[in-house]
Amino acid sequence: MMRLMLRGSQNRLMRKMDRIRTAEEAGTIKTHSGGRVLRSMLHNPLSIFGLIAFFVIVATAIAAPLITRYGPMQINLSGVLKPPSLQHLFGTDKLGRDIFSRVLYGGRISILIGLGSALGAAVIGVALGAYGGYKGGWIDTIFLHLSEMFMSFPQIILVLLLVTIVGQSTNNLIIIFITTGWGSTYRMTRARMLSVREEEYAVALKSFGLNDFLICYKHLLPNALGPIMVNITLNTAMFILQEAALSFLGLGVPLQFASWGNILNVANDLTVLQNYWWIWLPVGVVISLFVLSVNFIGDGLHDSSDPSQQG
Amino acid sequence: MVAYSIRRLLTLLLMTLVMTFLVYLGLYLTPGDPITYYIGPEALARMDPSRLLDLRKALGLTDPFIVRYLKWLGGVVTGNFGYSLTSGVSIGTILAARLPATLQLSFAALLISTIIGTAFGLASALRKGQLTDNVLTVAGMIGVSVPQFFFGLVTLLLFAINLQWFPIGGRLRPGHIALIDQLRHLILPALVLGIAMTAGVMRYARASMLDTIGKDYVKTARSKGLPEWRVNLIHGFRVALAPVIVLIGFRLPMLIGGAVVIEAVFQWPGVGSQFIEAVRGHDYPLVMMIALVSVVVVLASSYLVDLLTAVMDPRIKLS
Asked: Which residues contact B170 (CB under 8 A, 6 or more apart)?
């Protein structure tokens, strides 16, 4: 009797296994890995705040023409240095340009530079780091030393050095940020790959005779994705801050474009700083808020993608 | 230990050598013909090409690239850093005049960030998960998110322009050599630069402290019935502090980078504001030299940090 019951439950177990297997083979089983990270982030109030602030700022920057009737470069000499009013939410600057509009359009340039450079640096860093960490060899040694060299410069000094050499333009700025920024992603990906490649499944894949590229980029790289995402957010925050600082100093985005840093450029003037707070204070707050939101998202990603923080 | 430090020193020297080569390459590729130091532009235009060539030969400008690099390197090693393109002053003189101001500012900022950062980190770790911890964590995030120069501008407006507690910028007023006057100039930029770095120190100190108070010997100390403050401070904090101090070395690149911007905001007459001026004026030799000096400082300090860590923590294997 006892034995029969046991066999019955075993049979049920087997049938269940079979069902799972057929579902798996048919490809109808969904994995919830991305959902888990998102769910866990939504339990963190700071991440929610970060996500909302991030998307609101990005959306208003993209939809700038729908939100404001003024162009960022539209000069109106009959209405200069007007304090904030219903007509001009953030007031106007020395040339009568609407500052609210400049902040919205400036967001396009600044976010493009920050996010674009971070993604570009990540693509290079991940591609090199994954392969270097998995295969090693002389290519890896070269890139390791190269990244070491880039990273021993104080970041802003290296950026300014390159600005002096290649000249000042928006494209150059993105290229310079990518050149100076890939090192940290590279080292992190590489370190992660070094530990993953010793795992049994990696060795098993290798013994099946799978192509190195396939093992490296398809099977091992996803395990490093969490820290890579965190790294991208950190880099985005850093590049946005650097663009702002460089443009504030007059050495970043050329002044004929409205970027967040360029709007702040006028605050170099003490009379502007003292008497016309609306020219520089709102944009400074917007930059801080955006960087803060990116940092909150990064922190949430870090906590939710790190298995040691679960539970 | 000796073998390790010598090997690290050799790597350091090799890296420095590569850096000098890159800097020279940059100088070589950027515009600016040294011959213009000697001859005015009109004279140069009227000059006989063969005499110009002779002059170039005499100055060593026709030598192969590698020979010119070695000569330049010899000059740098013996303290001849070349000359500024815009002012014609020797770069060594400029650096010597500007460096004390930057060192003073950096040291003050380092002191501020270390003290505030470890204190907050300690408080945060001891109240983990409570209100104090959460408030400090969020404050730290805000601290790294606000652009340093923007923070500087706000403090400048509040404390220097509106309240007039501190001077608006600069380092010394003519005729005022008193220490008090110097301090009044120093406080604002040092605070702004220091507070920006505090967040990093705080996070690190918190993690280090949490790590330490979870250790067995801290539990032992507590189970012996020692008072809580003694357990936390003597057994926990003292051990947790070592890696935080070591972190100073890693904060150096950030410190130098921050100093560049903050010096410009507060018109602090240091190497940083000189660097910005040089970049604006396309003063290539000066830009390259300041960059080279900053790299050497960072490399040397990371070497010292490695040695210090090895000396302080016997668990680190020297291989």
From this structure: B185, B266, B267, B268, B269
A91–chain B nearest CA distance, Å? 19
A177/A162 Cα distance (integer angstroms): 10
Residue of A251, A270, A284 with shortest CB distance to B147: A284
Residue A237 and residue A231: Cα distance in Å, rounded? Answer: 10
Q: What is the pLDDT of residues A195-224, one digit of tens each?
A: 888 888 888 888 888 888 888 888 888 888
DSSP, collapsed to helix, strand or coil, labels residue B24 as helix
| pTM, two decimal places | 0.85
Task: For residue B56, tell me if it sits in a domain.
Answer: no
**What is the domain range of residue B148?**
91-280
CB A270 within 8 A of CB A205: no
Minimal CA–CA distance to B220: which of B207, B205, B236?
B236
pLDDT tens digit string along A164-206?
A: 888 889 999 999 999 999 998 999 999 888 888 888 888 888 8
CATH number where B260 lies: 1.10.3720.10
Could you give the CA distance from residue A25 to residue B220 in angstroms, rounded to a whole number? 55
B19 touches chain A (CB under 8 A): yes
CA–CA separation, A180 and A174 (whole Å)? 10
